[in-house]
Structure formats: C-alpha cells, structure tokens
Design a protein that fits this description.
Blueprint: H1 10-18, H2 20-26, H3 35-56, E1 59-70, E2 76-88, E3 94-100, H4 113-122, E4 135-145, E5 148-157, E6 166-175, E7 181-190, E8 202-209, E9 213-227, E10 230-245, E11 251-254, E12 257-260
Antiparallel strand pairs: 1-2, 1-10, 2-3, 4-5, 5-6, 6-7, 7-8, 8-9, 9-10, 11-12
Length: 279
C-alpha cells in the first residue's frame, strides 16, 4: 500500500532520527524517557484527553467530509460529500444535522457503516482514561510538529471487539507542555465479519481553540487501497470548522486548576496547512 503525505514528511522525520547529527539536535537527552516516565506521561495525557472530550461535547461545529476516487490513469472520478452541523436542540441535547449531502457519484468503491463511523469518531481520534487500557502504547521519541515539541507514541489496540467498535492504530504526537494530542497518523481498524474491506491511512491535525483545547480541525488521506479486484487510489478530506461554545455553565478542570470556558470564543485560527495538488 502506498501513500503520499502533503503535510510533514514522515519519511524525512525517520531519516532525521536515523542521523546521529540530527538526533543530537531533535532528541535532547532529557526526552529519553524511562518506562516509568513514559507511563506517567501516558496517564497524564489520557486524563487531558478525557477533559478535552468533555469540553468538545460543549461545542458546536461543522464537519465537512469529502471522498474522491481516482481512475487507473490517476484522474479524479466519483465524489462523496457530506456537511454536518453538530448543534444542540432547544432542550440542550446534542444533535447532528446534515445540511448538505448531494447524491454520491462513487462507482469504484462503496461506503460502508465502518467508513461512516470512521469519519465521525476514529479520524478525530481521542484516547481517554477509560480507553487507554484497551491499547498497547509505546514511547518512540521526541519530535517537533510546527515548532511544537512533542512526545511520540505508537498506539495499537490489544484486541478487536466483535461488537463492531472501531479503533485507531498508528502514532500520536503529544504536546510536551500541554500534554494533549496535537496530531495523529495511522488507520482505523476493527473486527470485520466480511473480508474485502480496506481503510486508508490518514493524518489528523488539531489546533488550539480558546487557548485551552486542542480540537481536531483537519484530516487528510491520499492512499491506495489494495482490494482483491485491484488497487484503488482514494483521497479523503475532513474539515472541522467554526467551533463555538454552547452555554456558559461548564467548568472544565485541567490538572488542579479549574478553567472557566468563555461563552463567546474567538473564531478558530486558520493555521492548518493545506495539501498540495496531487502530481
């Protein structure tokens, strides 16, 4: 399976890590963690992820999901698109409202319930304290993502639940100051009753919203799925936009200090790098 990366070059990062000179620059000795230190960071960032998940549940936002398939000559073909507003009704109950969903023109691939679930929950991956024990988590080292120092961890589910639950398998970058995930790279996995399904590798970037939370703002995949009938290139683009706090009575506790959430946050910064057109 092949893949093109239009954000950070993981191959370049791997090459840098292999270089003794580069390693001396990008991996300071203080970040060579012991197992005990790594486990402590895992526990702390899982706690922050739990707080993040609670905070995001109090925000409205718009999710724009697009999938493009390519023919054998590399030309774009069928499209899938859905625009969903995550809002609250008059009773304050969270709801998803589809505001734009043209008829899909995909002809070479077929959307499955697993694909739809991945768009909703797996691509904006969150690893909370309740879920951390479901994964093997291994410390890989320290790197920078857009000038942000990050601990990098490999994440893999210990088992695939036959209930159909979807999991994330790949790598996560954790801000070494805020101890929140700022980037993920990997794929969605899960127990499949029927063979023949393939799922793309993707990257999800987060941005700091309201100066407190690292919310997902952009997911991108450009991958070749190796089906039994032959390879199929697809592109997936998901944007999470216009985060706005709903209500004013939520107090989220980060560490030992409670943080009051402002009722009217500033508009999220538009800092996510955009992919270059495919060659």
């Amino acid at each position: 399976m092949t893949r093109r990366n239009y954000f950070l070059s993981l191959a370049a990062l791997a090459a840098a890590a292999a270089s003794p000179l580069a390693k001396a620059v990008t991996t300071p000795p203080s970040h060579n963690l012991t197992d005990a230190q790594a486990q402590s960071i895992i526990q702390k960032f899982a706690e922050k992820e739990t707080e993040f998940a609670k905070a995001r549940d109090q925000y409205t936002f718009r999710q724009i999901s697009k999938i493009i398939e390519y023919d054998d000559e590399g030309n774009p073909g069928g499209h899938y698109e859905m625009v969903t507003d995550i809002t609250f009704n008059d009773q304050g109950k969270r709801s998803e409202n589809v505001v734009f969903a043209p008829v899909s023109t995909l002809s070479r691939i077929q959307m499955t319930p697993q694909d739809e679930q991945d768009l909703r929950t797996t691509m904006p991956f969150v690893l909370t304290s309740n879920e951390v024990d479901e994964y093997y988590i291994r410390y890989l080292g320290w790197q920078k993502v857009d000038e942000i120092g990050c601990y990098v961890f490999a994440v893999k589910p210990k088992a695939l639940d036959k209930s159909g639950k979807r999991y994330f398998e790949g790598e996560v970058w954790v801000d070494d100051h805020d101890l929140q995930i700022v980037k993920t790279y990997g794929r969605a996995v899960g127990y499949l009753k029927h063979k023949g399904q393939e799922f793309p590798k993707f990257e999800t970037y987060r941005e700091n919203i309201d100066g407190k939370y690292w919310f997902p703002t952009y997911t991108y995949a450009d991958d070749v799925l190796n089906f039994p009938t032959g390879p199929q290139r697809i592109k997936v683009i998901v944007q999470y936009k216009d985060y706005k706090k709903f209500g004013s009575d939520v107090n989220i506790k980060f560490g030992d200090n409670p943080v009051d959430v402002p009722q009217q946050p500033a508009k999220p910064p538009n800092q996510t790098p955009q992919p270059k057109p495919p060659q």
